[in-house]
Design goal:
Elements lengths: L2 H18 L10 H6 L4 H30 L10 H23 L1 H7 L10 H12 L4 H29 L11 H15 L9
Helix pairs in contact: 1-7, 3-4, 3-6, 3-7, 4-5, 6-7, 7-8
């Protein structure tokens, strides 16, 4: 496979997980931070960057641990996959939390409980498990992790921008708050279904 074919294949992997198989809007993973941290676009972008960082590193590290250690015939412990994946994700989240607390204290305060909850963000664990399920190699795993993180950032920032504008909209009293937020999320999901014909994956 020449360089052009490799780049094209990796682009398909990226688009597939970022848009076609978006973890939030098609797999319904990571809904908690998607709804809880999308009140303002700056908070949404910060959360998206944190999730992208954790998801990319976790995808790379979990691939190495799973394929070179747990699946190694000398070890043969595939049943430890979930425990290993969760430990890797928790470690990455701790790094992000320490960094944000030190350099962006106001952003850290605005995140509240949602930053440490990245540890239990099922979108990150889901991406690692999907990468294993789809049989990606190491380079594909990194691209898929990064694409999954950017897909999460895209939809949470879109939701943040919409919710900021909804604050000035004439929303019926009965739909204000969670009601209009969930309706907006449903419409976004329908919009992203338009990507499903682009790539089978």
């Amino acid at each position: 496979m020449n360089t052009g074919n490799i780049i094209g294949h990796l682009a398909i992997v990226f688009i597939s997980i970022a848009l076609v198989n978006n973890l939030v809007l098609t797999k319904f993973l990571g809904i908690c931070p998607y709804i809880g941290v999308s009140r303002r676009i700056d908070m949404a972008f910060g959360m998206g960057c944190a999730v992208t960082f954790v998801m990319t590193l976790s995808a790379a590290l979990t691939w190495v641990i799973n394929n070179l250690v747990l699946m190694n015939p000398a070890v043969n412990m595939p049943y430890l996959k979930y425990i290993a994946f969760i430990m890797v994700i928790a470690s990455m989240v701790q790094l992000v939390e320490m960094y944000v607390r030190k350099f962006f204290p106001s952003l850290y305060d605005s995140f509240g409980i949602f930053l440490p909850l990245i540890t239990t963000n099922c979108a990150i664990l889901g991406s690692c498990l999907f990468i294993d399920l789809w049989g990606y190699n190491f380079l594909e795993a990194i691209v898929a992790g990064f694409g999954g993180g950017l897909g999460f950032t895209l939809v949470i920032c879109m939701m943040g921008g919409i919710r900021e504008n909804l604050a000035w909209a004439d929303v019926p009293q009965s739909l204000r708050g969670a009601g209009i937020t969930l309706i907006t999320a449903a419409i976004m999901t329908l919009a992203f279904m338009g990507f499903s014909g682009m790539i089978k994956g």
